[in-house]
Amino acid sequence: MVDSELGSTSASSSSFSHFGIFHNYPLISAVLAFAIAQTGKFIITWYKENRWDPKRLVGSGGMPSSHSSTVTALAMAVGFSEGFGSSFFATAVILAAVVMYDAFGVRLHAGRQAEVLNQIVLELPTEHPLAVTRPLRELLGHTPPEVVAGGILGVVVATVAHIINTFGG
User: Fold this and answer.
1) How many domains are there within the chain?
2) What is the CA 90 to chain-centroid distance, rounded?
3) Residue 161 · residue 29 · CB < 8 Å
4) Does residue 136 sit within a domain?
5) 8 bridge partner residues
6) Which domain holds residue 36?
7) Pairing of strands 8-9, 2-3
8) What distance in Å separates the CA atoms of residue 41 and residue 71, rounded to the nearest whole number?
9) In a domain, 83, yes or no
10) Is residue 101 part of a domain?
């Protein structure tokens, strides 16, 4: 029996395909966009600061926003595969908007507050109990240009993946 909505058979939907995940175009696009953005942060840090910082491969904050590139690539890939008028695309776009807003809103300001709190702790007398606390992470969010750059990267990755998926394989 074929499920016309999803285009799959009942037998295949009840069993797990170990290799089906490698044909999931939206997932591949999102993971690829994330990997490219994180690698870009690593290279940009090396270029600007003349040092290799492996934490940039997994850390948040910086140019470009990997959160934005991931959710934008996901939304675009869902649009290409399910249709830009589908409820799946609408859901992915709302998710992308929330994540991108959070990246340059709440998380950016939390990072700025961490900077201020770290400075206050540095100025405390050494005998104060908080003077020995570990510094808070300051690079949490993104500036609007970092979010936009991540969004553009996500669109480009999903579009190129769509072209390859459509014409190349």
Assistant:
1) 1
2) 18
3) yes
4) yes
5) 3
6) 25-48+62-168
7) antiparallel
8) 17
9) yes
10) yes
Nearest to 74 by CA among 164, 162, 167: 162
Query: Does some domain include residue 44?
Result: yes
Residuewise pLDDT in 10s, the chain (169 residues): 444 444 444 444 444 566 777 788 999 999 999 999 998 888 877 777 777 776 766 667 677 888 999 999 999 999 999 999 999 999 999 999 999 888 877 766 676 777 787 778 777 777 777 767 777 666 666 788 888 999 999 999 999 999 988 887 5
Q: How many CA atoms lie within 13 A of 53 on its CB side?
A: 19
